[in-house]
Amino acid sequence: MSIKIQNLTKIYGSQKAVNNISFEIGDGQIVGFLGPNGAGKSTTMKIITGYLPANSGIVEVCGHNVFENPVTSKSLIGYLPENNPNYLDMYVREYLNYIAGLYKLGKATKERIDYVLETTGLIPEMTKKIGALSKGYRQRVGLAQALIHDPKVLILDEPTTGLDPNQIIDIREVIKKVGQSKTVMLSTHIMQEVEAVCNRTIIINKGQIVADGKTSDLLINSGKTSVSVEFDIDIDNEKLQLLSQSFNIEQKNSRQFLFFSNQGKDIRRDIYNFSVANNTPIISLTTEQSNLEDVFRGLTK
After folding, report:
1. What is the CATH number of the domain that holds 278?
2. Mind listing the pLDDT tens digit for each residue in 86-106?
């Protein structure tokens, strides 16, 4: 097991930032760790990496207790914190050589630097100072330093924050590539990122785990679909009341409505029957499955 957490609690003053949570992450998984601001995501990740102590609980990385064996456990982790602290006056290759020295890579230094430069797409920028790079390339430098010692576990806290769409896609591809051989745990506020990259999702809210499972299963088990309908005529108040009795609806205007179905029920036939019975022709009807953002909002708002 790459990461094992049992009954983890972290208290700041009178606030329980992390409240008795437990979960395990197996080898080779890419796990999205989601939650609103202040939910306990970064605190949990900092405890796993050994940057913060816990009030109680057990945290193991590849079988090593992070509190009892901090040096060994940290050697197995690559960490990209949210603020990605780099030495801006250092050149890219110079910085990676410095990080390799901290990990005492010795003769393997050049090979590992060449590998992470290629893996993260930094070869064209390796002779530049980090301060001269775009934010996207600085994030790549952060990923490179997290990977340089070939860790078994990668912890990424908001790895695509502030990047443009092209940079986000590039970083996602890097994460998927390294995730083929490592366990990756990443936090993000971008739900599409989790759907695109992660095969498992853990959602934390107010310090407690509120969902944990395969990303695809969370979407299916939410059991919610929406049907967007535009009628050819205005729907008067009397007919609107009839609609409200039969469906959960959100009115966009006098002709456009969003119908919600729970438990995955297909309500398109019911909507069609309503339109026929009330002589209200339909000019468009679109069905949308719930996405991870819907699941997230339902569990955390």
Report:
1. 3.30.70.3190
2. 999 999 999 999 999 999 999
* Boundaries of domain holding 226: 222-300
CA distances from 195 to 26, 112, 263 (A): 19, 30, 21
Q: pTM here?
A: 0.78
- 260-286 tens-digit pLDDT: 766 556 778 888 888 888 888 999 988
Q: Give the chain's end-to-end CA distance (angstroms, integer).
A: 32
In the chain, % helix, strand, coil (3-state, to 5) comes to 40, 30, 30
Please give the angle made by the CA atoms of 106, 112 and 117, to the nearest 5 degrees. 140
Beta pairing class for 153-157 and 56-61: unpaired
Tokens coding 118: 């290629």
Structural contact between residues 99 and 145, judged by C-beta atoms closer than 8 angstroms: yes
